[in-house]
Design goal:
This protein is mainly α and about 150 residues long. About 75% of the residues lie in helices and about 0% in strands. The longest helix is centred in the last third of the chain and has 43 residues.
Length: about 150
């Protein structure tokens, strides 16, 4: 039964590595001048990977239960005791998950920064200029020579 658990942890690690790579691509896209074309695809891929990771986590918890262990981190800590291969893969998974969490947080900051910039740009464009000497939407200066 531990072989199945090991296989699940390996699959979960691969999925988290794929998620990390996608986050790196998302970060690069978010810093590009025109990210809107790529973002919908990235969001779809992130959703699919998140669902896959969640399914693998549920599978891992079921396997832990079948071994008579508790679900989650506590059960895995019990399962890895004395099993070098499982310990190594579990540590790899934990490290990858920590990097993915940091990458996701960084991308959140990039998104908030871009949104703030866009909000300020829109606000600047909405400011009503003083009427004197400023041209209107038709390109004419209002009130000059009866126009």
């Amino acid at each position: 039964m531990k072989d199945a658990l090991l296989a699940t942890v390996i699959d979960e690690t691969a999925a988290v590595h794929a998620f990390e790579s996608l986050l790196a691509y998302e970060a690069k896209t978010l810093t590009a001048a025109a990210p809107l074309e790529s973002l919908p695809s990235i969001i779809q891929q992130k959703t699919a990977l998140t669902e896959q990771i969640a399914a693998l986590e549920r599978q891992r918890d079921e396997q832990l239960g079948a071994l008579g262990l508790s679900a989650g981190f506590a059960g895995m800590e019990q399962a890895v005791a004395g099993d070098e291969a499982l310990t190594a893969h579990w540590k790899t998974l934990l490290a990858a998950a920590a990097r993915a969490r940091r990458g996701n947080n960084s991308n959140g900051v990039l998104i908030r920064t871009r949104m703030d910039y866009n909000r300020k740009a829109l606000a600047a464009m909405r400011i009503s200029p003083a009427k004197s000497g400023f041209y209107g939407p038709d390109g004419r200066v209002p009130g000059v020579m009866g126009m």
